[in-house]
Structure formats: C-alpha cells, structure tokens
C-alpha cells in the first residue's frame, strides 16, 4: 500500500533552517507530482509547495517568498523541503502528499520559537 513517512521537523529559533524529508513507498514515485502542505490547529491545511514528477517545475505558496525550496530525489523515492529564514508563523504540522490523491503522510511538527 502507499506509504509516506515525513521526518526532519523540530524546534528552531526564528531565522533558523530545517530540512524536511518524505519517503514514499507502494507507488511509482517518479511518475507522480508531490506536494507539501501544512496545518495549524483550527485552520485549513494550506499548500506550501509542489513539484512535478521529474522535478522540472516547482511552485510555492505566496507566503514562502523565496524562503523554502522543494526538491526530490527519484533514485531514493524521497521528497524534500528546505526551509530557511523561518518565522514563528511557519509553526505547523507539515505533510507530504501525492499530487491528485488522498495519500498523506503522518506529518512532522515544525515549531519556530525563541
């Protein structure tokens, strides 16, 4: 079955960096676009970034403003989100998603706090 496992979350000070990873299995990873979402309790899940199957096209939510970079390594079936210049408002649970499906990982908590 499809499985997505995120990692890399944690607690970081404002201005710091984190790199999230998502390992996919149970599907042909290199044929699907992938997305990162995030969610704060009481709010809707919002799209952070997306990447097409071969990594050639990426898109970001307006709030990212060149701070985050989505990438993938299809040889490892892994998706990444490099997050720099983190702000307290980036605090959320981050999820990876197979584009166009209801397959989600369990999420990884990112907390930005001094």
Structure description:
With 114 residues, the protein is an all-beta fold. It has no helices and ten strands. The chain has strands spanning 3-7, 10-12, 18-25, 34-39, 46-51, 58-60, 68-73, 78-83, 92-98, 108-112. A six-stranded mixed sheet has the order 2-10-9-4-5-6, with no helix packed on it. The protein has a four-stranded antiparallel sheet with strand order 1-3-8-7, with no helix packed on it. Strand 4 (34-39) and strand 5 form a beta hairpin.
Write the layout of secondary structure elements.
Elements (H helix, E strand, L loop, with lengths): L2 E5 L2 E3 L5 E8 L8 E6 L6 E6 L6 E3 L7 E6 L4 E6 L8 E7 L9 E5 L2
Parallel strand pairs: 2-10
Antiparallel strand pairs: 1-3, 3-8, 4-5, 4-9, 5-6, 7-8, 9-10
What labels would you give this structure?
114 residues, mainly beta, 6-stranded mixed sheet, 4-stranded antiparallel sheet, 0% helix, globular
Largest sheet: 6 strands, mixed
What is the subunit arrangement here?
single chain
Low-confidence spans: none
DSSP E strands, number: 10
Radius of gyration equals: 13 Å
**N-to-C order of helices and strands:** EEEEEEEEEE
What is the mean predicted local confidence, pLDDT?
Answer: 97
| Fraction in helix | under 10%
Strands of the biggest beta sheet: in what spatial order? Answer: 2-10-9-4-5-6
